[in-house]
Amino acid sequence: MPDISRRTFLWLTGGSSIAIATNPPRKMVIKLIPHVTPLENVRPGSWQLYATTCRECPAGCGMHVWHRDGRVTKAEGNPEHPVNRGGLCPRGQASLQGLYDPDRMQRVLYREKGRPEQQQSWEEAFAAISARLAAGGRVAVLSSLQSGALAEVLHGFAAAFGSDRVLFYEAFNHEPVKAAHQQLFGRPVVPTYHLEQCDLIVSFAADFLESWISPVTFARALADGRTYRGGTSLSRMVYVGPRLSMTAANADQYLQVPPGWERVVAATMLKIMLDQGWARQDISWARPAIEALVAEAGPVPWIPQDTLVQLTREFCTSHASVALSGPLAATSQLATDTALLVALLNYGAGRIGQTVDLSRPHALSASAREAELELFFASLDRNDLLFIYDTNPAYSRFGAKAQLAKAGLVVYLGTQVDETAELAHWFLPVDYPLEAWGDYEPNPGIHSLLQPTLSRLYDTRAPGDIFLELARRTGRPLSRAGSGNSGANFATWVRERFSSLVGHDTWDAALAAGGDWKSAAVPSHTPVPVARPAALSFAPLPQRSRNADQAELVLWSSIMLYDGRLANRGWLQEAPDPLTFFLWGNWIDLHPKQAAALGISEGDLVELSSAAGKLRAPARVTAEVSEGAVAVAMGQGHWALGRNARGIGANAFALTGGRTDGSLFGSCRIRKVASASPETLIPTALSQDQHQREILKWVPLSKLSAMQPGEGEPLILPLPEGYRPDKDMYPKREYTTHRWAMVIDLQRCIGCGACSVACYAENNIPVVGRQRVADGREMAWLRVAPYRKSDQPGRASWLPLLCQHCDAAPCEPVCPVFAAMHNEEGLNAQIYNRCIGTRYCSNNCPYKVRRFNWVNIRWQAPLDLQLNPEVTVRSRGVMEKCTFCVQRIRLAEYQAQREGRKIKDGEIQPACAQSCPARVFTFGDLLDPDARVTLLTRLDPRRYHLLEDLNTKPAVTFLRRIENDVKG
């Protein structure tokens, strides 16, 4: 027995041995490290920042990850990264829940048919798999989208065994866009779209604010274009599609058409462009095919011809416009036709080379196409050794489960046992991206780096190192071309590749910055390609069924769950859908006329069946989906993956079969199953009607442009000057140092909910689960609720609602123990250890932004490692609410005091403000006359306070949403 010290003996016998026995994944601390001898480059109790790259979807946003005392606690956007410029979507915010997921796999598993799975060691796995490789057999590799070093290793590994069968599988591969640009320009690419330059965006069912290519980039571009800077014009967005999505609700004009008719609208616009002579490029060679399609369809019955003429004129005469093609996940001929006609619109209006850049294709251009996937899966047999990394075709692709089972050996590399991993013989747990070295290139010239932000939590390996080790053990070591470093580890491979691209002297600086993108800023001078005249032909219009029980299928991607890979994240399941405000599940959208014909009411259990499969989900009866169509969100309905995903909702991919019957996704049959669904719809906003209270206010652009700074609605400021002895019940408040306040620009808000998820992450807000939310026990401090425009119920906008930090706060005087109190800097503080849970403060709050802890939430290990040490973890029986991230305020104040200076305007950013992709929030000090928050509060003519007539004197000022004047 090894010698142990008296301290270690007491530690073991004091109960720590029990903790280790009951929680084996936790590492035993062998010795304490006193602060007088700290670890190298680490200061205990201080924050460290690591720059890395988000890999939650193919967009490739830059991230800053905050690290303290051996663990990471918060992910934020990298302000210098050209993809996202500091913003981060809800999926990026939730990356920490992927790192700390309790369902994450921690051990190597082996499954043999007919026997229970067994835990194995890495040595046993490497020995068995390399022996199988050495014995022969065909190698095939299927991976999620990769670029850079890992892509090189995957291709090199396959080539070492005489194979070129490496495919990057993405459920959303944007194939129609690639096929369209290949047919027209000979370039099968997903272009770079410069929405930041556009004064008109026309989306043909492309939900670019949610999951289409790079939503954070597009959200910032759209918000910047719609920001009011004086004048009489703003950039406009028009949406053509069958369903009111979050993107469609953000449009200035929503033109609803049945699924598949988007291409008819695009063809009609092209015909108008040709007839009127507005084309800037020669597209006359396409006239016969365009006119044939328009003649077959006839006039678009849902959109007046004058509207299309005006839209076409504006599209052609604008300084910069762009047309975008969707819908996401559609791969049918109808979707390709739509993308082809949209590409022709961009070409005819002279937008190729201006707002559509084919010379800098997105990384999604390398994702596998349908023909390649069909050949890959069909060719699998018992002679194949199939390696699958971080992708889940068994869940998202029709027939893939049976085809994967044909392979002789399936090795799955991943972090969770999803539906595809359950089919594998070997499961090899890999590092999560926040633990790993790597690189990613979303666009040419943007060389983003991944680096470990903490030590490995479990006995995992880097995927690149696994392939390098297997090649070495079979006598076929890999090395980068020209490096001569045979068998090097993957971290070395990443560094060698990066240095060869941007220079050996830039590594340290690039690691601190998160990558190198200087070359991406160099303007492209590639000549504008000329469309190749070819015989165009379009698929015939699908025959619409007259039967009430049949409808066209519309699938859409949730901004939270993407293609389903993130469905086990509690933050994302509990984040409401932006438009319906439903959570923890999905549903079937059905038009009222079709619902009435079938006797279906809201909440009924409905079954959809197609040639590929069927699903059941509760019905939502709404005119937001076109008549003759049914819409279902993708991403739910898992039978594996983890406890938050398993059994929640229905799998919409089950209705798709790769091939359709001449429509976008195919048709389906509708059947009512029961008058009440066991999975009831859970709305967290009971009404989106404002009931004529003008909670979310609009102002016409024509009226706003005639107003001067300082005009508009007078405000009672939360300052001593706002004190009125004749109306105020409480004494005047004086502030000597700061009076913190916030401005929320409703014009920029797109409703994505990233701020709400960031608030969860920053402030240790617990996930309470489906049933408790249904019981009204949600804990969100910040809600981004949708409201309908009073005179146009089909139009929606969003109101980010948090504690208003009122100067005359109704919550404070009713607390019997002074738990709700006003501090010296204007914050409505909540003293948790005083609170006795009377909930008087919640009853008295007119904004209903306080949350009561009904139960003690158990933070299941290792989710507790994500908790922010600067924020109290609340217990049952206390009230909690937004604090303006007081911990960030105090940190900035201490830093300024140590440096002997004043706090700079904009230096403090609450979590919601820091993460917002659209830059909706402005935070600052009202006592600073030059602060941006002061100037907006005092001078912006759009300013107003929520429920101003209550005289609560809120510190949150809203800026009205602008009603952009529709042209024509």
UniProtKB/TrEMBL annotation:
Keywords of the record: 4Fe-4S, Iron, Iron-sulfur, Metal-binding, Oxidoreductase
Entry's Gene Ontology cellular component terms: cell envelope
Ranges where the 4Fe-4S ferredoxin-type domain occurs: 740-770
GO molecular function: 4 iron, 4 sulfur cluster binding; metal ion binding; molybdopterin cofactor binding; oxidoreductase activity
Statement: the UniProt record of this protein carries the keyword Repressor: no
Cofactor: [4Fe-4S] cluster
Pfam families the record matches: Fer4_11 (PF13247), Fer4_2 (PF12797), Molybdop_Fe4S4 (PF04879), Molybdopterin (PF00384), Molydop_binding (PF01568)
Primary localization class, coarse: other
Domain 4Fe-4S Mo/W bis-MGD-type: 47-103
Superkingdom as given in the UniProt entry: Bacteria
Cellular compartments annotated: Cell envelope
Family stated for the protein in its record: Belongs to the prokaryotic molybdopterin-containing oxidoreductase family.
Name listed for the protein in its UniProt record: Fe-S-cluster-containing hydrogenase
The organism's taxonomic lineage, starting at the top: Bacteria, Pseudomonadati, Thermodesulfobacteriota, Desulfuromonadia, Geobacterales
